[in-house]
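Hello Y.,

Per our agreement to keep a running log of every chain we model this quarter, I'm adding this entry. I've kept the format consistent with earlier entries: sequence first, then predicted structure.
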Amino acid sequence: MKKSDKNSRSSKIRRIYRSGKDKILGGVCGGIGEYLSVDPVIIRLLWVIGILAWGSGILLYIIAWIIIPRNPRHKWTRY
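Predicted structure for the entry above:
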């Protein structure tokens, strides 16, 4: 494998971040929406359905909020 092949592969790795632009609470759904190229409203609706159907969605959201890092390219503001 050539060195240039290795560099081109590493530049294509996508990372998931919490969104600083499209956030309501912690930016988790906005970040997932950016990563999947989907409207964050759809992610939020699926998350609410998951909370109502299985009840563990709140805990999973908090865990995701802690684990997923902030997007360093977005300006972060506090509401």
